[in-house]
Amino acid sequence: MRYVAFLRGINVGGHKPLKMDVLRKAFESLKFQSVTTVLASGNVLFQTRGASRTALAKKIERRLATVLKHDILVIVRTVAEIQSLVDANPFKHIRVTPHTRFYVTFLSEAPKSVSKTLRSLDKNLQLVRVSNGEVCSLVTLSADGQTTDLMAAIEKEFGRGVTTRNWNTIARILSN
Fold it and tell me: Which CATH class name applies to 2-80?
């Protein structure tokens, strides 16, 4: 089975710097096969025998804590789940402008309540789709530079057990 591990906060703004070859070797030490890192932001494709996503995430977190000497949240999805998300394209009806940015936030656990309606956390951030596994959001960059702090808004709504990727990154992961 092919999986994607999304690591929270890797190489973002100089926090928790991590060389991709170190990350790849850590995954290989867990006996995962076909380990590939995608971009330098904590995205790892790998293969292993079928296991629960939660069990895999915990196993990876323990290994990374040993190797890196600090805790890193890991969220695991199957490649098939990522492909289904891309095929569904929650952003397909949104008019794209130079100020439009699409993001997917992966949740480590289902939200306590999931609204079936679209919600806006502020004028520049719209939640396009909320499910048990992810939040798809639209950020509109403002002309005055007062753009929404996406992660702060998402964490306030869903907690810190999340990690976010740009929609283009999701497509790039599938192209590997």
Answer: alpha beta
